[in-house]
Amino acid sequence: MKLFLISILLCISVAVFSQNQQNTKNHFQTAGYVIKTSFNTIPSDFAFLGKEFSDDWKKTGYYAAGILGLFATDKITTKAYHKHIEPNIDYSLPTITPNFLRSSKNVWINGENSYLTYPIIGIYVGSLFANQEKGQFAAINSLKAIAYSTIITQFTLKTIFGRNRPNRPLGTEPANKPFTNNNWDFFNGRDEYLYGSARGTSLPSMHATGYFAIAKVIQMEFDNYWIPYSIMGITFLSDIKSHEHWVSDMVVGGLLGTLIGRSIVRSSWKARGIIDRSKQGRISFNYTPRFSSEFTGIQIVGTF
């Protein structure tokens, strides 16, 4: 079974990086260019991430209001999630982590996370041998997505919000401290900063953030939705009870991860001179009321 799963992951990796176009550089030139460009774009990665929030404050406000609404309804949604969803998704993936790495504290090379990390490594190694530039960029950008997701969630947002994780089953009294039945239990201290602990580490979900960031990078680089999001979904849902989050924590993580992944790719595309395909083919309309002695109505101006 394990050999079968590894073979499937390798086949998917090969299928993904084989979509790349031919490269005129030699292997060393390509690898050097990819590494140099990926390193140099780190500042612009965060600049693009900032623009995701600042370019449209109205949209950002709507999302913020929606997230507050999720916080307010977390008791209802999380209780339903514990009662109706988790019991019906009961499976786990066999470990593919080599024995010598299983004692590592790095969560991204252990357990179900390895089903994302190892294919990324496979894409890079395969693209390196095949001299495929796109595959190398996709793999390194995915690793950047993991690093950024970890830094932003573990060191920054979880420290700021300090939200305690939901008690299981939710509503049972007394709560098993530091778990809580209070969906407004924010601004608590933390016991650990890099590695997970129960106290003050619920918002946002690092797994949801990292998984969606990786999936978005692969989706944009290879213009393919079903492979990255299918693998991400299957992996995320395995051993689902171990996540121990409020529903809003996972939603926020998914949104944040999508923005992180998109920002990394857009930053990379700009440095590589690639047109942002996500903006191609957009059609927008402006509606302007017109009143005059000759015409009364709405003027519609379309941009293609």
Keywords:
about 300 residues, mainly alpha, two-stranded antiparallel sheet, 10 helices, 2 strands, about 55% helix, globular
Explained architecture:
The chain is mainly α and 304 residues long. The protein is built from ten helices and two strands, in the order H-H-H-H-H-H-H-H-H-H-E-E. The protein has a two-stranded antiparallel ribbon. Strand 1 (284-291) and strand 2 form a beta hairpin. Helix 2 packs parallel to helix 7 and helix 6 runs antiparallel to helix 7. It is globular. It starts with a helix and ends with a strand. The model is unreliable at 281-285 (pLDDT under 50).
Largest sheet geometry: 2 strands, antiparallel
What's the quaternary structure here? single chain
Strand content: 5-15%
Shape: globular
Ends apart, CA distance between termini: 50 Å
Mean pLDDT reading: 86
User: What is the N-to-C succession of helices and strands?
Assistant: HHHHHHHHHHEE
* DSSP strand count: 2
Secondary-structure-based class equals: mainly alpha
Strand order of the largest sheet: 1-2
Outline of the structure:
The chain has 304 residues and is mainly α.
